[in-house]
């Protein structure tokens, strides 16, 4: 094989889901597959997990439509409150509604299409201040809702803005509780689902999860909080060694600002470069003062997009020279590695371009 690929461990994904479900057996679960399922592949992952969760959730309606066209049958929540009313009804997607105007338009479309009481989830803005109905507008929204007959408030939810400070988390959770009490006790509306917690919050503070948990990072083994759970890594990026060559001391390697080699080196070529979405930590950069500003910028870039690291087994392998768009050079001096052998790149899968083939292992 002459291209890199990503191996997705489907069993590990399911095991991660089941660990959370066993920890919180009384909850409903929404599996988050937005953003190409965090790099794991939107359609394949949705199909693999749709029977493991109560709901799937996507970021935008286009993702939901793609899932429906691919044959996914599970309920799908569109988290972004921007949608075409007729499209969500045609493809049986559950929209997020956060304004009276959107509520009325959805009701009109449902009446036009004889869709019955079409379900939606109300998003309330608690502290994130990104989108969602402001708390002060809740009563007018509910009063309007009660005059409409072709929509049904199936769910109510919000997002935590803080996930590390217990007092802030509790404060935000209490604010959503107050909103839910208004909805249920004053207006007599009883949504089937109330959700606020993502993976990190649910694992660390399961009592604050209401009756539905949105799981994304934990499902893919990336949860910031684990609280005794042993989430498994769900992917490995593999890249084959295409060829090697011997480089003499004093030569330079790759594009640009490399300094001459201090010793002879065996250099290997791998089909992984910046066009695949990766930043690489590399050796033999120029150390001249002229490059100080460039190196500072690289440090900032590395913070924003952590560099990929290459391994042969458990042994780290240095990237040398400046990677090109599709290839990189690595130092394999003295290593028992042959052309065609596969190395592992430890990366954030979110950075991996969709052009890299995903292989699903069950």
Give a quick summary of the entry:
It comes from Marinococcus halophilus. This protein is α/β, with parallel strands linked by helices and 362 residues long. The chain has helices spanning 10-23, 34-38, 42-49, 61-69, 85-90, 100-112, 138-145, 166-186, 199-204, 292-304, and strands at 5-9, 28-32, 55-58, 76-78, 94-97, 118-125, 133-134, 151-157, 193-195, 212-215, 235-240, 243-247, 265-270, 282-283, 309-312, 315-317, 319-320, 328-331, 342-346, 357-361.
Which runs of at least 5 residues are low in confidence (pLDDT < 50)?
Answer: 297-305
Shape: elongated
Count of strand segments: 20
Radius of gyration: 25 Å
Largest sheet: 9 strands, parallel
Return the string of H and E elements.
EHEHHEHEHEHEEHEHEHEEEEEHEEEEEE
CATH class of the largest domain: Alpha Beta
Measured between the Cα atoms of the first and last residue, the distance is 21 Å
Oligomer state equals single chain
Mean pLDDT: 90
Count of discrete domains = 2
Structural class: alpha/beta
How many helix segments? Answer: 10
- State the CATH topology of the largest domain: TIM Barrel
Q: Which bin fits the share of residues in helices?
A: 25-40%
Strand content: 15-25%
State the CATH architecture of the largest domain. Answer: Alpha-Beta Barrel
């Amino acid at each position: 094989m002459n291209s890199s690929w990503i191996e997705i461990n489907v069993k590990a994904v399911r095991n991660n889901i089941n660990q959370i479900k066993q920890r919180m057996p009384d909850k409903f679960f929404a599996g988050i597959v937005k953003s190409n399922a965090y790099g794991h592949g939107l359609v394949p992952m949705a199909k693999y997990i749709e029977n493991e969760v109560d709901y799937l959730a996507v970021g935008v309606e286009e993702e939901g439509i793609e899932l429906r066209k691919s044959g996914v049958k599970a309920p799908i929540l569109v988290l972004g409150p921007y949608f075409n009313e007729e499209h969500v009804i045609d493809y049986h997607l559950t929209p997020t509604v956060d304004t009276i105007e959107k509520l009325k338009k959805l009701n009109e479309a449902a009446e036009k299409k004889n869709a019955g009481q079409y379900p939606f989830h109300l998003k309330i803005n608690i502290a994130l201040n990104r989108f969602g109905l402001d708390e002060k507008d809740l009563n007018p929204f509910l009063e309007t809702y009660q005059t409409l007959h072709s929509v049904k408030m199936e769910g109510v939810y919000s997002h935590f803005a803080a996930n590390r400070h217990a007092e802030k988390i509790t404060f935000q959770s209490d604010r959503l509780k107050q909103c839910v009490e208004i909805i249920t006790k004053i207006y007599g509306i009883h949504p089937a689902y109330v959700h606020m917690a993502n993976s990190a919050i649910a694992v660390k503070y399961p009592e604050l999860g209401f009756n539905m948990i949105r799981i994304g990072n934990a499902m893919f083994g990336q949860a910031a909080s684990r609280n005794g759970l042993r989430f498994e890594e769900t992917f490995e990026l593999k890249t084959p060694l295409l060829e090697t060559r011997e480089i003499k001391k004093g030569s330079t390697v790759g594009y640009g600002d490399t300094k001459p080699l201090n010793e002879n080196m065996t250099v290997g070529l791998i089909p992984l470069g910046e066009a695949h979405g990766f930043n690489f930590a590399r050796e033999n950069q120029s150390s001249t003062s002229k490059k100080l500003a460039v190196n500072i910028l690289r440090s900032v870039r590395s913070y924003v997009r952590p560099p990929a690291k290459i391994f042969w087994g458990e042994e780290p392998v240095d990237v040398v020279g400046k990677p090109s768009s599709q290839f990189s050079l690595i130092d394999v001096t003295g290593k028992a590695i042959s052309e065609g052998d596969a190395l592992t790149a430890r990366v954030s899968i979110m950075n991996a371009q969709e052009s890299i083939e995903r292989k699903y292992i069950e």
